[in-house]
From TrEMBL:
Annotated positions binding heme: 408
Example GO molecular function: heme binding
PROSITE patterns: CYTOCHROME_P450
The name this protein goes by in its record: Cytochrome P450
Pathway(s): Secondary metabolite biosynthesis
Keyword annotations from UniProtKB, A to Z: Heme, Iron, Membrane, Metal-binding, Monooxygenase, Oxidoreductase, Transmembrane, Transmembrane helix
Source species: Neolentinus lepideus HHB14362 ss-1
Amino acid sequence: MSTVTSFIVNWTQLIKASKPDRLAIILLSLIAAHYIALYLRQKARRYAPGPTPWPIIGNYIPTEKSWLFFHDVCKTYGPIVRLSLAGSEMLILDELEDIEELCARIIHYSFSFANAQRLVLLPYRPLLKKQQAAAFQVLNARAVDGYEGIQERSSIKLTTDILKQPTKAYISIKWYTAETLQTLVYAKRFSEDGNDLRTLLHILKTFAQDMHPTRHLVDVYPILDKLPDALAPWRGEAKEKHENEFTFYSRLLREKNGLDETSMAYQNTAGSILWALVAMLNYPETMKKAQAEIDHVLGRDSNMPPSFRHFQDLPYCTAFVKEVLRWSPVAPISAPHQSLQDDVYKGYFIPAGTTVIPNIWAIHHNEKRYPDPFKFKPERYMPKNGEKLTTESLNEGHCGFGFGRRVCPGQYLASKSVWMGVVSLLWGFDILPPTGASGKPVLPDPSAVRSGLTAEPGTFDVVMKPRRIIDVDALTQAWAN
Ligand code: HEM
C-alpha cells in the first residue's frame, strides 16, 4: 500500500472511531486533501537539482560572497540549481545561455523590505516601464555622447584632488563618480565640505546591504509583510531610510527627472575604478603598458589628461577597462529577478515567485569563455586587426551590466566614466603599493570585498605618485570652465 493510500485509510478509520464534530471533520479533510494534492503535484513535477533543504529554514545561503557559494553548488549539482529559503524557491544560474534565455522571460524583481520606488526594485509594471523609458531616453549610447564634457571635467577634478590629497584617493574616486552623475542628473555640484558626499555614501552603503536577498527576514519569509506595523519593525526602518533619502535628494534638487533613483550607479562606477587600482597594484606590467600607450599618443610632456577624442588611439587602455569589468564585476550576482508565472525550462519546473539569481561572476570566471580567468589580462580584449573601436565596445565581451529587459540602463554612461577615470589616473600617477614593516610591498587581496549585494574591493592602501609635472592651476581652471 502506498504512503498516501495508507494515510487516507487511517484517517477514515480515525473519523469513524471518534465521531467528532462534522464541521471539524470537513475542515480537516479539506486541509488533508490540499496537502495530499500538493504532495502528488510536487512528486509529478521535475525540479532542478540541488542540496536537500533543512525543514522550515531551507538551505543555508551566506550573505558574504554569495556568488562563490552559488558557483560551488553549481559545480556539484549542475548549471541550474534549485535552493529553498524558508519555503521560497530560488534558482541559481551559472551559465550564460540559461541566464539569457530566462532573463528574457523573467523581468520582475521582488523585495519586501526596501520597496521604496527605486527603479531597480520596481516590479515590471507600468510605473517601471515609464521610468525605464525615461532612463533609456537620457542614457542611450547616443545621448551619453552629449555628456562627455561633464565626464572630462570631472576627471580633471579627480586628478587635481588626488594631487592635493594623495592619501585620500578612495574618497576622491567616490567624489568623481558621484559628482559626475550629480551634475548630470541634478545639474548641481556637491557641497565642497564633503557633507553631501558623506550622506550619499551612507545611503548607498545601507542600500547595497539591504538589497541582498537574505539580508532581511521579511524577504526570506514574505508572509511576514502581512503583519501589522507594531509587529513589523523593519517597515519603520525602511520608511525612515526612504524619508532620509528623500529629504537628502530633495535638498539637492529643484527638479527631478526620470533618473532620480539611480543611487547604486555611483557606487558601482566608483567600485570599478577601485578595482582598476587593485589590478594595477597586482599586475604592474599592465599599468606600465597602458601608460606607455597614453604617453605615445599624447606625448610624454602633455599637460592635460586624455579626453574622449583619444579613445580610438588607446585600444590597450580600453582593453584594460573591459578586463576590470570582467575580472571583478561590481554586481557579481546582478539583481535577483523573480518569475511571475509557472514555467518549464529544460524540463525543470519553475514555480511562479521563484527568485532567479544570475551569477555574473561565474560567467566571467568560466575557463571555457575566458582561459586563465583569475588572471588580469587586458590582452584578451585587444581588438582584431582593423577592428574599429567605439565607446560602445566597452560594454561588449562581458556581462557586467546584466541581461534582458532589465539590463543596466546606465551602462554606456558608466563604462565611459570608468574609462575616463582610469585613463586620467594612468596619465597622472604611478599607482604603487605601500611598503610594509617587513620592507616588502603590501598588495591588496583581489578576493577581499566589502559586504552587500555589490562587490567593492576591501580597504587597501595605495601610493599615488605623480609621474609628470602637473600644472594644478591650469587644470583647476579647465575644470572650473
Ligand atoms: C560600472 C558601473 C555599473 C555597473 C557595473 C552596473 C551594473 C548593473 C547591473 C548588473 C544591473 C542589474 C541588471 C539585471 O538585472 O540584469 C543594473 C541595473 C540598473 N542600473 Fe546599473 N550599473 C552601473 C552603473 C549605472 C549607472 C551609471 C546608472 C545610471 C546613470 C545605472 C542605473 C541602473 C538602473 C536604473 C538599474 C535598474 C534597471 C531595471 O531595473 O530595469 N547603473 N546595473
